Amino acid sequence: MNHEHKDIQKILPYGEQLRGFANQKYISQAELARILKERGIYALNIDKDFTVPLLQTLLLSPKEFDKIREAFSTKEDNKKVISRDIQWANNAQIYLPDTLNVEVKDFIAKKLPTCTLEQPIRLVQVDNNPDHLKADFTIKRNDINKSWFEQTNLFTGSFEFVNDGNGKGRVIIIHTAPETKELAEFAVKEQIRKYKEKGIIAQDEQLRKIIFKDFTNEERFVFFFRLTNHLQSDYFKCENIKDLAMKPEDIILPEEIKWMEDMNKIVLSGNYLDKKYFIEDKKYHKNLILWSIDATYTFNFNGQTGKYTINFGFPDFATNKKENAEFELNISSLAPDKSIDTRARTVLKSELLSEMDKQKSIVYNNFLDYKNKKQ
């Protein structure tokens, strides 16, 4: 999340300083337009390209600047979740008091020199369940190369170990920034090393990740569709596939999709994209590399109903990891039917994300069984 500058109470920015601050994505166009209206300034276009220059010409009162500060500091980071399967030893007890503290001081000093840990990392039982352990952490990042209002930020993360019984389990990582992901990866690796020393995990055991290259193009479509319009869940129902990212294979394409040949990346936004002929018809799937989908679901979960939009896929495929990109999911928007406070909203979002991750594991394991039967 955004962390206010240590001297924010002493600063009243104007001109260029105010321009950078007001252009932050966390501050909406409507909020800036409202401040201008209170000054008697009405803009025909509330786009920031028009309102921010107007704002720059003003010397804001402390009260007016406080309104912008509130918009900047209270927006929640979007949590992204990664989960991996793990095999425990038979009758494993994962709650071991002498393994709960995770030492990361040297790692942070070496790998994350601009960051500090806000509190020690320790695994605790979730709902007093010794087969479900979780560690939450917060890091503070200081970057003197950033603008004055961006130099200090707080980011949260967590990692979990779950023993589902019969030797099956999961490791779950939730991150909000590259630094929290990197720290959680290291902490998980350290904890697994401890478990191997105790015989809780076999020495040759490896976390099983969902990796881009493990699918053929056709199989990736099947996997995504089983998570969306073919999802079988008591809590969720997919309403709409509204965004997707893909590209064509570097081969001669069928005549019907030849228009894609010179495209390195195709990003589609709209409604019911699964009904587009080249998505709906399976004969084109072998020619298309799909790596990301946004879908809207209705939910009925723990007494709450509403809608949410989830993004899932292999986000690092578009960067340097390519074929080794790992599957992630995150909830980009949440709209409960009944109004709830910020804390309840955060809890609900986390619960929905956790439940959808469980559904992903079910779908993936069923998919693996399907592949094995075909061979």
How would you sum up the major sheet? 11 strands, antiparallel
What is the N-to-C succession of helices and strands?
A: HHHHEEHEEEEEEHHEEHEEEH
Helix content: 25-40%
* Straight-line distance between termini: 47 Å
Report the radius of gyration as a whole number of Å.
24 Å
| Percent strand | 25-35%
Compute the number of structural domains: 3
The count of β-strands is: 13
Q: Structural class per helix/strand content?
A: alpha+beta
Net shape: globular
* Mean model confidence by pLDDT: 86
Q: What count of helical segments does DSSP give?
A: 9
Low-confidence runs:
none
Could you walk me through the main structural features you see in this protein, from its secondary elements to its overall organization?
By secondary structure, the chain is an alpha+beta fold. It has helices at 16-22, 29-38, 48-56, 62-73, 105-111, 178-198, 217-227, 277-280, 342-374, and strands at residues 80-87, 101-102, 115-117, 121-122, 124-126, 129-142, 152-165, 168-175, 236-248, 266-269, 288-301, 304-313, 328-336. The strands form two sheets. Strands 1, 3, 5, 6, 7, 8, 9, 10, 11, 12 and 13 form an eleven-stranded antiparallel sheet that branches. The model has no long low-confidence stretch (mean pLDDT 86).
